[in-house]
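Hi V.,

You were right to ask for the full record rather than a summary. Here it is.
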Amino acid sequence: MRQHLIPLLFPLFGASALAASPEELPESPCKAEFVYKGEWSSVAGGLRERTTYIDNVDLKLSLDAEAAFGWQGVSFYLQGLANSGADSGQSPFLNVGDSQGTSNIATRVNAAKLYAAWVRKDFADGRLSALFGLFDLNSEFYATDSSGVFLNASFGIGLDLAQTGVNGPSIFPTPAPALRLRAEPREDFYLQTAVFNAQAGDPDHPSATVLRVSSHDGVLWVTETGFTPEKEGLKSKYALGGWGYTRSFDDLRDGTPRASTGAYLLIDQALSGRLSWFLRNGVASDASNLIRRNTSVGLLLKGPFSRDNDRFGIAVTQVAAGGAYLETLQSAGKPGARSEEAYEISYHWELRPGWALHPDFQYVVNPGFDPGVGEAQVSTLRFEISF
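Predicted structure:
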C-alpha cells in the first residue's frame, strides 16, 4: 500500500512547500533540503520480466557555523535517508541479474538511517580543509559531474571499488566514519586523502545505523589528485586516484590472505558550453575481488531543445571479471562471461524548480557474467521532488 500512496502524497506536500519563492526567504546559516525520488522500472529479459517501484528519501541539514556563531571556517552537515521497495522484491537488480546495478537508489533492504554526520574546518582561506565524521566516499572521491545524469550505479562510483570490503566501502547506502584532508594550493589543482573504517556498518543488521570504529576492521585509505583547468568559462577535470585496505581478504580460489588495492583515472572534459564527455577507468586486484576493471565512457548535452536546465546523455559502462573469479567458475564446471556491459540513454527533464521527470533506458549484456541469463532491457521512469 505504501509504495502506491507515496507517489500521490509527496507532490501534494511539495506543492505547498514550494509556494514561497526562494527569493522571498531570508538567507540563513542553517539550511534544510528534502529530496524524494520515486522510480518505476520495467525489465524485459534478464532473470525475470517484471515492473517494480522503489523510492529514496533524503533529508539534508547544513549549518555555516562561521555565519551563525563566528566559528571561522567551520561547517556542519547531517543527512538521513530512507529507502523502500527492497523487502518486497522491488529492487531492479533482482530481476535484471546484473552486477553493476541499473538503479543508483536500489538497496537490498528497506532502511531509514543516518547517512552523513560530519564537521569540516577550512584553513588558509579555504586552500586547506579537514573533514571528520560519517560520510560517503563517493561524495568527494571517484566522482565526475558529467556522469551524474545516468542511473546505472557504476557511473557514480566504479564497481572496481564499490565491490570491496566486508560490507562494501563507505558508500550508499551504508557509510563509515572517516577523516579527510584536502589541499588546493591553486584554483585548478587539488590533492586529497581520506581514511575510513574498513567495515561500513554491520552486515548482520543492514538497516541499522552503525558508527563502527575498530582496529580489528583495519582501514580503507583513498588518495586522489586532480587538475581542474578552466578556459573561456569551460571547466574540465583530470584526476588520478588510488585506494587500498590495511587488512587482507581471502583469495577467491584457495582462501590465501591477499591484499585488496586499486587505482582509477577520471577525465571529465567540456567540449563547449553545452557538451561534455567523460571517461572513467578503474582497476582492482583480482585475487580477492570478483571485478578487475570497470570502464565507463559517455557524452552529456546540457540544455537540449532550448531547455536550459534539461540534460541528455548517452553512455556505456563495462565491468571485466577477474581471473581468480573465472577460475573458480571453471573449476565448478560453470561457464562465465568475461565482461558485462550496460548501454544507457537518459534524459533529465526539469518541469519546474524542484520538480523533474527522468526517463531512462538501459540495455544490459551478460548480466552477472552468466551466459545463461538473457540480455536485459530496462525502461525506467524516475520522478524527483526537492524543496
